[in-house]
Design brief:
By secondary structure, the chain is of the alpha/beta class. 49% of the residues lie in helices and 15% in strands.
């Protein structure tokens, strides 16, 4: 308890999944949290749940595709709590039906994902940094993705946008480090959010599990705990980094799981 006591945190996309877990854990560790989400009812419910458990939080509306809405979320945070110490740029989106291979992808979807996944990080940072400088520093945390490091047969726009987040994180860290502003990202692998559980069949989950170094999938709290660490003074000498929280899914030769099966059959 108390790892981020009295820090003021704005969490975008905080009404569910990774954002909700992060907001809840930040509040549990003493932060005053503004939960901003397009699902404003969900944001308010999340804030009320935090309050019922003794924390401090408020839920507000955010359209992360709109510059004015992002600015208003930052300004609300400062007006409500006097400052902003932590910004968690967590909003993100993907669409497997439209975000296809390069030739067949919907170009409007490319623009939408670049706006939501990448430009929103730029804008949130743009509006928060002056307040953080005034406060003597701060921590900016961005949600990247393992898709920003590795390619796929589809999700071209999503992967490109998340790769942009990884590098933008370094630029922010470089440009504002002398102001004692740290910027890091977290890159989740498969995390069993409610959306993932509802949209992925057991067969798909088994495919992911087959290639994990660890014998289980990630939970939203695994990302939330990483966010709390990066927000806290425990991470005061860490900046410009992307922490991969993915169960060792990408560390091995990609053929190792198939090779292990081959060896078992050969030895039987």
């Amino acid at each position: 308890m108390g790892r981020v006591t009295d820090k003021v945190a704005l969490v975008t996309g905080g009404a569910s999944g990774i954002g909700l877990s992060s907001a809840t854990l930040l509040a549990k560790e003493g932060a005053k949290v503004v939960i901003a989400d397009f699902n404003v009812d969900g944001a308010r419910e999340a804030a009320q749940e935090i309050k019922s458990n003794g924390g401090e939080a408020v839920g507000i509306f955010l359209d992360a595709g709109d510059e004015i809405s992002i600015m208003e979320a930052v300004e609300f945070t400062v007006k409500e709590y006097g400052t902003i110490n932590v910004l968690y740029n967590n909003v993100g989106s993907t669409n497997l039906r439209k975000d296809l291979d390069i030739v067949n992808m919907d170009l409007d979807e490319w623009d939408r994902l670049m706006n939501l996944n990448l430009k929103s990080v730029l804008l949130g940072t743009r509006f928060a940094v002056p307040h953080m400088i005034k406060a003597g520093g701060g921590s900016i945390i961005n949600t990247a993705s393992m898709a920003g490091f590795f390619s796929d047969s589809i999700r071209s726009a999503y992967g490109a946008s998340k790769a942009g987040v990884v590098n933008l994180t370094k630029y922010i860290a470089t440009q504002y480090g002398k102001n004692k502003i740290r910027c890091n990202a977290v890159a989740p692998g498969l995390i069993l959010t409610p959306a993932a559980r509802n949209n992925m069949s057991p067969e798909v989950l088994d495919i992911f599990a087959k290639f994990n170094a660890l014998p289980y999938h990630g939970e939203p709290e695994d990302i939330g705990n990483t966010v709390v660490f990066l927000a806290s003074d425990e991470a005061k000498f860490i900046t410009g980094q992307t922490i991969q929280v993915e169960g060792g899914h990408y560390i091995a030769n990609p053929s190792i799981a198939d090779f292990e099966e081959f060896m078992k059959k050969a030895q039987s």
